Amino acid sequence: MKLTAGFTLLTASIASATTLSYDRGYDNAGNPMTGVACSNGNNGLITRYGFQTYGSIPRFPYIGGSSDIAGWNSAQCGQCYSLSWNGGQPIYILAIDHTLDGLNISEEAMNALTGGQAEAVGRVDAQVTKVGVDMCGLAPRKRAVEFLA
């Protein structure tokens, strides 16, 4: 019992208030993935999933930039986040790019989060939690395990 409770505490994600803004560029399905930090390289979304445009990403336009992504080929590329605001239902955003502060998402996603108030509010402090990529419509990344005898 104690082991299970300890494991649960270790694996639980902690929600934190994070600044959230929007950028209409993330609403354009035809934008090429080559223009974002998570384009190619071992951690790139072109490499890992074959996405060529924003519109090829499952659950588009629920995408955006994250300050967790330091730059090109970051290990945080493809991180999925749960966002909630003012006690409303959460939305899930796939991080595909770098932003300086918090998260910067599509206007459509911001409207879904704020009840159609994206333009009026501009920027909000939202509750943000890292979640599994399956919540953003992606298959979890396979990891190789090596056993030494």
From TrEMBL:
Record SUPFAM superfamilies: Barwin-like endoglucanases (SSF50685)
Cellular component annotations (GO), alphabetically ordered: extracellular region
Location relative to the cell: Secreted
UniProt keyword terms in alphabetical order: Secreted, Signal
Major localization class: secreted
Stretch forming the signal peptide: 1-17
Pfam families in UniProt: Cerato-platanin
Family, per entry: Belongs to the cerato-platanin family.
Protein name: Eliciting plant response-like protein
Species the sequence originates in: Zymoseptoria brevis
